TrEMBL record:
GO CC term, one of those recorded: membrane
Name by which UniProt lists this protein: UPK3B protein
InterPro entries assigned to the protein according to its UniProt record, in alphabetical order: Uroplakin-3 (IPR024831)
Alphabetically ordered keywords of this record: Membrane, Transmembrane, Transmembrane helix
Transmembrane segments: 171-194
Organism whose genome encodes this protein: Semnornis frantzii
Length: 253
């Protein structure tokens, strides 16, 4: 059979700002748009070839779907094929842009290697990918290989230093001092406001008490005392022997 047509398209990561576009086990590719329209018909399918960058040159296109390398063969073969798509999903009339997430199928282990799947990538790579158009008679067209794609590396728990960084201790002290000063200023402001309110309340009560003491106070249950009439000798009547007597003469020395 004739070799597949080599198209100038180079696969790349999605140019959109996506959360998790590049993780430790997945990466998001730009879906090819209006690339295979001159070489395809409705019965064809588009595959994604994923290979270690060091093994991409040794990859050979499978002659039929039955010989497509599976995800489980990646550690030994260095490549596999996944994300089988109908031609219509990448046609010129398909909505664009779109994203293909490589490594997103965590249930690949349950398939026991019978069908192609899109399992998590086992290492940071780097990887290279290309798109391959396959018909009933085998490969018909392919894109170029992508640039190497290196995944993020997960930090080992043993490599994490639990002790604080020494260089940042002075900064922590400065920030703590500023926060403490702000707290003291805020507390002083609150106490000043509360003290002003209490002082105003006390002054108001004091003015009310002073005004009350200036009023005349009259008892209503005690009759007023009337002046007593005096008897002979200027003593009040009824005192008898208790009337005031002239002071006794002092004895002569």
């Amino acid at each position: 059979p004739a070799p597949p047509a080599l198209l100038p398209y180079v696969p790349r990561l999605s140019p959109m700002a996506l959360p998790g576009k590049l993780t430790a086990t997945t990466f998001a590719l730009e879906r090819p748009h209006c690339i295979f329209h001159q070489h395809s018909n409705a019965s064809d399918a588009i595959w994604l070839v994923v290979a270690f960058a060091s093994a991409s040159a040794a990859f050979r296109n499978p002659p039929s779907r039955a010989e497509v390398p599976l995800y489980q063969q990646l550690p030994t073969r260095g490549s596999y094929m996944t994300l089988e798509m109908a031609v219509g999903t990448c046609s010129c009339s398909a909505p664009s842009p779109a994203v293909l997430r490589v490594g997103a199928d965590t249930a690949c282990g349950a398939q026991a290697g019978h069908d192609p799947c899109n399992g998590p990538l086992p290492s940071p790579g780097p990887y290279r990918v290309k798109f391959l158009l396959m018909g009933c008679q085998g490969p018909k067209a392919e894109t170029r290989w992508s640039e190497p794609i290196l995944l993020r590396r997960a930090s080992s728990p043993s490599a994490i230093d639990p002790s604080p960084v020494r260089g940042g201790s002075s900064a922590v002290v400065v920030i703590s001092s500023i926060l403490a000063s702000l707290g003291a200023v805020l507390a002083l402001a609150v106490l000043s406001i509360v003290g002003a309110e209490v002082w105003a309340c006390l002054c108001h009560q004091g003015l009310g008490t002073h005004a009350f003491t200036r009023r005349s106070y009259r008892t209503h249950h005690i009759p007023p005392t009337l002046p007593l009439p005096t008897g002979r000798g200027g003593s009040p009547p009824g005192l008898g022997c208790f009337a005031s007597c002239p002071p006794a003469a002092r004895p002569a020395k």
